[in-house]
């Protein structure tokens, strides 16, 4: 596996804020520490896709076959991962659990109902069943 060129923007500092003005899928920023991958802007990413960090974390760790831990704004993954792979999974999450399949707007809510989970669109009112994770 080739890891060169990964996390190019590492060490670029982004001021963490506690809000995100508009919906946006940010690219990960971070670096490697030994075999671990540290995503330094995880908090900001979660804010901008408007989902709960725990839900997003569960999805990512499953998809990336890595364990993960949230520390403040950072996500620490137990495997050495290329930023592209992490970004791909973030996109997959956004397409599956944030954007409305019908109107493509991000104004949605996740609802759990027993063993099922639904994505409800606040813009067009559609409700879709999604994988429970
Ligand atoms: Zn919709």
Verbal overview:
By secondary structure, the chain is α+β, with helices and mostly antiparallel strands. Helices cover 26% and strands 24% of the residues. It is built from three helices and seven strands. The strands form two sheets. The chain has a four-stranded antiparallel sheet, covered by helices on one side. Strands 5-6-7 form a three-stranded antiparallel sheet, with no helix packed on it. The longest helix is centred in the last third of the chain and has 15 residues, at 83-97. The chain is globular. The two termini are 29 Å apart.
CATH topology of the largest domain: Alpha-Beta Plaits
Dominant shape: globular
Number of separate domains? 2
Low-confidence stretches: 8-16
CATH structural architecture of the largest domain: 2-Layer Sandwich
**What is the succession of H and E elements?**
EEHHEEHEEE
Strand order of the largest sheet: 1-2-4-3
Helical fraction equals: 25-40%
CATH class of the largest domain: Alpha Beta
What would you call the structural class? alpha+beta
Number of E strands:
7
Question: What ligands are attached or bound here?
Answer: zinc ion
The percentage of residues in β strands lies in: 15-25%
How is the main sheet built? 4 strands, antiparallel
What's the helix count?
3
Give me the Rg, rounded.
15 Å
Cα distance, first to last residue? 29 Å
């Amino acid at each position: 596996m080739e890891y060169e060129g990964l996390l190019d923007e590492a060490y670029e500092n982004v001021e963490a804020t506690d809000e995100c003005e508009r919906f946006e899928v940010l690219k990960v920023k971070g670096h490697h520490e030994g075999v671990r991958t540290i995503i330094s802007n995880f908090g900001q990413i979660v804010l901008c896709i408007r989902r709960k960090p725990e839900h997003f974390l569960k999805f990512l760790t499953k998809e990336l076959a890595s364990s993960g831990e949230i520390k403040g704004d950072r996500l620490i993954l137990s495997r050495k991962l290329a930023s592209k792979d992490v970004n791909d999974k973030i996109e997959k999450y956004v397409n599956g659990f944030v954007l409305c399949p019908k109107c493509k707007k991000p104004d949605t809510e996740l609802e759990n109902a027993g063993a099922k989970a639904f994505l409800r669109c606040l813009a067009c009112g559609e409700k879709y069943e999604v994988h429970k994770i």
